[in-house]
Amino acid sequence: MSKLMHLFRILFFYEWRHFRAARGLVLLCGLLLATGLYGIYYGTTEIARQRTQLAALPELTRRNVAELQVKFPGPADAGDIGYYHSTFAVHHPDPWAALSLGLRDVNPSYVKLRLLGLHNQLYATDNANPMKLLSGNFDLAFVLVYLLPLLIIALGFNLLSAEREEGILTLLLAQPVRPLTVVAAKLAFRLALVLGLAGLLSVVGMLWAGVPLDGRVASWLALTVLYCLFWFGVVLVVTAWQRPSAVNAVALLGVWLVLVVLVPSLLNLSVAAARPVPQGLELTIRQREEIHAGWDKPKTETMNRFFALYPQWRDTATIRERFVWRWYYAFQHLGDQAVASQAAAYARGLQARYNLVEQLNLLSPAINAQSSFNALAGSDLPTHLAFQRSATRYHDALRAFYYPFLFRKTEFTHADYAREPTHSFTSPPELTTAQHGLLKLLLSVAAVCGLGLLLLRLRPITPR
């Protein structure tokens, strides 16, 4: 055993010297390190921008209140306040989101709310460049999932073929050393190099982003290690076929394209076909049509429909005026109710698609790793849907706050602004999703490494 370890250390040291002499590989590792640092910088900068944006919202609310206090210096009709006063449902990012932005670059981090219909406000987003959304943001998770395998391919495509093509393998195998020991030493050096780079970037990213040092640190590192092991398993499988370096390079790049590009695209198309989702645009259009139709319907019909939902306000005075705020907000809410089932189906459809992808992402470790990183960071789809549900509850709380003023004809004073409900939502991590991702990655690693070892046993390494 000691002799075997001595040979292993000699081979490992030889690989180190060979790596230092290969300037192209050193440059490639430096390039990956630089892109990883940029990914960390971009992610932390984006989250800092969002936090700055969210931190400014209370001041915007305060200014809005100050303007309304000037506009209505005395006691005012609560209907006027509810129409002109705006507040915000805010989605605070978890510090881990700086390392894996997920959907935080696509979905809004806050929703501006008034007492009007909810869904037009809930689904209103700022315009964004569609090409930018398609390519995604360049965060640390992107570097680890999509670029790190390319470095592994560059380091491992000629694992044995280079020595065979240069005639060195014949001399090497003439020594008292087993071929599997040679392969193990070469893989061990490359694995140590890649894990060192990935670990360094992960630690720097965690310190830079100021993440809490909880159990997610171990989960993030475990996901990174298993993902790297998977790609080294792929290298082992291709190496076991003992083909020329050019063939190995093409094969490995083909596997990368299939697992990182082709399978995710086909998976997206199949999931979209299997789990159709109602169009969000149809939902908002229908709500607007329902609200606009409210102007032409008899007030008695509108209020009776509203009182069926809120019987506690049925004893309020009959509306005889041409316009009254409680009638206006009643048909606004009825517009929301008209599309409530459609909105629920839309959310269920999105969640069903996500669940189906989680069931099928074993076919693509890249999707599995990316979704697991997003789950740890609280930047995935379930977290956004949870925020929307929280914003809906906040809108309900606003209505519950204003309705007594509207239906009891109570005047709204300056002191009442301070009693208005506020909202805050912080992304929770989806730890169960991350744990399932770890298990699926472990199965992928076991499968591909087992296949590689089996091929090495069936196809003994030879100099030619």
Polypeptide structure, described:
- The chain has helices spanning 2-21, 23-55, 57-71, 78-84, 118-122, 130-135, 140-156, 161-166, 168-173, 179-209, 215-240, 245-274, 280-293, 299-309, 325-338, 340-360, 365-377, 381-407, 431-458; strands at residues 87-92, 110-113, 425-426.
- The radius of gyration is 30 Å and the shape is elongated.
- The longest helix is centred in the N-terminal third of the chain and has 33 residues, at 23-55.
- It has a 3-stranded mixed beta sheet with strand order 2-1-3, sandwiched between helices.
- The chain has one domain.
- It starts with a helix and ends in a 6-residue tail after the last helix.
- With 464 residues, the chain is mainly alpha-helical.
- It has 19 helices and 3 strands.
Topology:
Elements lengths: L1 H20 L1 H33 L1 H15 L6 H7 L2 E6 L17 E4 L4 H5 L7 H6 L4 H17 L4 H6 L1 H6 L5 H31 L5 H26 L4 H30 L5 H14 L5 H11 L15 H14 L1 H21 L4 H13 L3 H27 L17 E2 L4 H28 L6
Parallel strand pairs: 1-3
Antiparallel strand pairs: 1-2
Organism: Hymenobacter swuensis DY53
Protein name: ABC transporter permease
Keywords: Membrane, Transmembrane, Transmembrane helix
